Amino acid sequence: MESVGSIILYFIVALSMIVFSVMAVTTRKILRAATYLLFTLFAAAVVYFMLDYEFLGAVQIAVYAGGIVVLFVFAILLTSKPGDNTERLTSKSRFLGGLAAVATLALAGYALVSRCSMAFASKPVMEAPDMQSVGEALLGSGHGEYLLPFEAVSVLLLACIIGGVVVARKR
Amino acid sequence: MDVTIPILILAIPLFMFVFLGLTGMKMSHKVAGILGTCGMGTVLVLAYYTAFQYFFSGADIFINGAGERLQYLVFDQTWLQFTENLVIKLGFLLDPISAMMLVVITTISFMVHLYSMGYMRDHHGVYEHGFQRFYAFLSLFSFSMLGLVVAPNIFQMYIFWELVGASSYLLIGFYYTKPSAVSASKKAFIVTRFADLGFLIGILTLSWYTGTFNFTELTSIPVEGMAGVSQVNIGTAEYVRGIFANSAAPTFMGASVLTWALVLIFMGGMGKSAMMPLHIWLPDAMEGPTPVSALIHAATMVVAGVYLVARLFPLYLMEEAALDIIVVVGAVTALYAAMVACTQLDIKRVLAFSTISQIAFMMVSLGVARPEFHHGLGYMASMFHLFTHAMFKALLFLCAGALIHAIGSNNYTEMHGLRKHMPITHVAFLIGCLAIAGIIPFAGFFSKDEILTACFGHSIFWYIWMSAVAGLTAFYMFRLYYLIFWWKEHKTPEGHHAPHDQPWTMTLPLVILSVVSCVAGFVPFGNLVTWNGHPMFESVDFFTNLKALDWSVASISLLVALAAIGLATVMYRKENALPSKMRNALPALWTWCFHRFYFDELYMFITHRIIFGCISRPLAWFDRHVIDGTMDAFATITNKASEVIKPLQSGQIQMYVWYYLVGALLLGGITALCVI
Amino acid sequence: MEITAIYYLVPALVMFCCGVYGFITRKNMIAMLISLELMLNAVDINFVVFNRYLYPEQMEGMFFTLFAIAIAAAETALAIAIIINIFRAAKNIDVRSLNEMKF
Question: Between residues B327 and A88, which one has the greater pLDDT?
Fold first, then answer.
């Protein structure tokens, strides 16, 4: 049984997650879409905190909210004038998109409901992973440790930096 | 015995081949020629030293207390180990025949190296195009041939056998811009390859049943059953014999497996040694430069078949049927080639057919050899003839080369009356003719006489047959001699120099080989090379061979040869009508001989009409229409299908997303329905 | 009331479907990229929730999400570089104008 505070917090988070993601894909102002995305990302970060993964939540805020959204904003400001609206969607494309979304929802929802025993499992007790265990798992090479993906990601990021510079620079 | 010298004997020619082949074009013609000749000269000295050590040092590794010569394995290294039993080794075996072959090969090869320095240039001293390549190939050939004769196992022999064939191919096709040379080289290669197929099957059959490749083990002489023959080596021969003589041993088409193996191996020898009906490549091989003909197609490579049979001789002794086949093939070939040689117009073709005939002599001699008769006289005679024939046939070919070089044509109807213009060549050629005709005291007399004696001891029929062939030999050689050097006055065509003797590089080999042809007959071969290493004579001096002659046989063969020479003298010494009269008397025979009994036409008929026409063409049709058609249909269907689905690639990214999403949903739906 | 796994999974699913809708309908490439981020985030949440509810003693889901965030950052940076490049060439970022790569 959860405390009332956490239930209220949950509803706020779930609601904002749904509302802001719907608004992010329906608004006609692109800068606003980026802002709604930022709120959605914050909601996701709160979910991580609620599930006791503090480190992950912090990373979510730092990288997604602090890094990626800023990147979006810069890109938007570079490619469009403020106050520009994207063109109105035709009802046909709106219908088709909605159809795809509903089909996805139906399929995934069916899969979810058919596994209700798992879906309705109560939250087990867990000791929140402290920073030391996270760091050791990240830099160890044993079972359940992630040195190799860590290094691979570091190389990927390096390649990405170089690629970004090469692609975007003026010729 | 030190292994350095044997290794050097093989390594120097190989190095020379690689070196001249890679860097030859960077150096001048003369330097390349001198390098090649010096390399061969070194090998000559080393080989002579080795043979001398083997025959005369008396070391107990070469000769045992009873005076019998032993096989000595200088080295035998594992080269490829496939399984525990299937091991390919490379080594160096010294025994009487390999030591003798070392001498023959290096002598002739050195002479040819030297001779080519003069031959491979025109009258203005300009070297021929590809002169360095020529020397590289000569070195390759020498390497392969030396490796062949010293092979201690049949597999190494096969490897070098093929190398010899390849270098022969390269040298026949040396003038690769001449279509006839190209087709001749292809013909030689294909015919010998076909024969080698039999050889390979024979090797595999033999070694499958005996479990060994080694000559020493295959041919060790068993103790029992041979009067006057003591044991030389105890190996697996009795085991071999046991396997094959076993009544449960497999047979195929009425003959034992051993017979089949030996006959198939002999088939390889037939190809290389140009026995009928696989002889057709040798006359065409004369398209190569004449020194090459002297080295490869007269003295060394073509006797490889004889050498092979001699190597496996103790095995052949177990199967007299195989030996009988060898006798029949050899005798028929000898007569055939001698008859054809009487009518040919090209000097090198006459010599080529004479070579075929003489090699057939050696084969017959091996075939009639039996231990019961004079300690296997036929074997010794065959090797002796191989030795002397190499010398005088190389001499004859080098003389022919000198003539061709002087006249610029192979056709001896253009050569008449050259004796005054080219005295040295004349004398050398005469010595060669006397030697091959078997006139005492020249080399051919002794060896041929031993062969005829061996035939006499085996069967009187083959003795008469081979004596007749010997008479024919004397006849056609002197026909050739008179037509070239006598007949009528030489007329030099307008604008040409009168023919004259050649530079010393060409003359010196002629002189040396002439001297050798005169004295080689006195070499006491019976004490050096016998089938079991057992010496034939108690004591040896210069006249041993003369004393050992069977004069009843010798006088008859001498008379036959003299009569044939006399006939040739009457017919060809001066221009007269006798030859054409004789031709008109037997027109059919003459035509058949002149066209070599239509063997080439027969082969053309078989290959073109039967194989190409009845088998290859339907197969080609099947390939073109059915197999290719199927593949074409696949390609067409793919092409059409691509045209149909091409519009799906609209370039609109969101269309692609749609395709992806629909596919993913379908897959997910199917999974959900099936699993849940 | 107990907050079970489905309480987190359903908002994540709605978020994912929003991403699908946006990715298909929006013509602005940055808007498409934003939709993409939404989908990615929904999946991240799923990983974490399953990790927390089903295998609390392990950290696989959490680390998967961690690496997914890193890769998402890289991917976004590159995508934006490409978009800016396209904008330079075509003066707009409408995805319909990019049909050079058809057959």
Answer: B327
Question: Distance between CA C90 and CA C75 in Å, rounded?
Answer: 22
| 8 Å CB contact between B466 and B456 | no
Q: Name the band, by pLDDT with cuts 50, 70 and 90, for residue B592.
A: confident
End-to-end CA distance of chain C: 57
Distance (Å, whole) CA B332 – CA B314: 24
pLDDT at residue number B410? 72
Alpha carbons B433 and B555: distance in angstroms, whole number: 19
Q: B157-181 pLDDT, tens per residue?
A: 999 999 999 999 999 888 888 888 9
Here the ipTM equals 0.90
Q: Which token pair is A19? A: 């509302």
CB B529 within 8 A of CB B384: yes
CB distance from C90 to chain A under 8 Å?
no
Strand partners, B411: B346
Euclidean distance between CA atoms B663 and C5, whole angstroms = 28
Cβ <8 Å between C96 and B646: no
Q: Please check whether residue B668 touches A, CB under 8 A.
A: yes
Helices (H) and strands (E) in chain C, counts: 3, 0
Interface of C with A in 12-71 (CB under 8 A): 12-22, 24-28, 30-31, 33-35, 37-38, 41, 44-45, 48-49, 52-54, 56-60, 62-63, 65-67, 69-71
The per-residue pLDDT for range B635-644, each reduced to its tens digit, is: 999 999 999 9
| Residue B69: strand pairing partners | B63
Which of A100, A107, A114 lies nearest to residue B669, judging by beta carbons? A107
Q: Which residue of C has its CA nearest to B659?
A: C24
Residues of B with CB under 8 A from a CB of C: 646-647, 649-654, 657-658, 661
Residue B342 has what pLDDT? 85
C6-92: CATH topology is Helix Hairpins (1.10.287)
Mean pLDDT taken over chain A: 87
Count of residues for chain B? 676
- pLDDT above 50 (res B224): no
Q: Which chains have 3+ CB pairs within 8 A of C?
A: A, B
Mean pLDDT confidence for B463-485? 88
Residues 6+ apart with CB under 8 A from B676: A110, A111, A114, A115
pLDDT digits (tens, 9 = 90+) for B424-453: 888 898 999 998 888 888 888 888 888 888
pLDDT (0 to 100) of residue B317: 81
Tell which residue, B84, B138, B94, has the closest CA to residue B293: B138
| Beta carbons of A107 and B658 less than 8 Å apart | no
Cα–Cα distance measured from residue B165 to residue B507, given in angstroms and rounded to the nearest whole number = 29
Give the pLDDT score at C20. 93
Residues of B in contact with A115 (CB under 8 A): 676
Contact C81, A79 (CB under 8 A): no
Q: Classify B560 as helix, strand or coil.
A: helix
Residue A102 carries which side chain, given as an amino acid letter? V
Of B652, B658, B661, the CB nearest to C96: B652
A40 in contact with chain C, both atoms CB, cutoff 8 A: yes
Rounded distance between C-alpha atoms, residue B558 and residue A53, angstroms: 116
pLDDT of residue B233: 39
List pLDDT tens digits, range B294-353.
888 888 888 899 999 988 888 888 778 888 889 999 999 999 999 888 888 888 888 999
Q: DSSP 3-state assignment of C100?
A: coil
Q: What is the Cα B159 distance to its own chain's centre?
A: 15
B676 touches chain A (CB under 8 A): yes
Q: Residue type at B288?
A: G
Among A56, A71, A96, the residue with its CB nearest the CB of C65 is A56
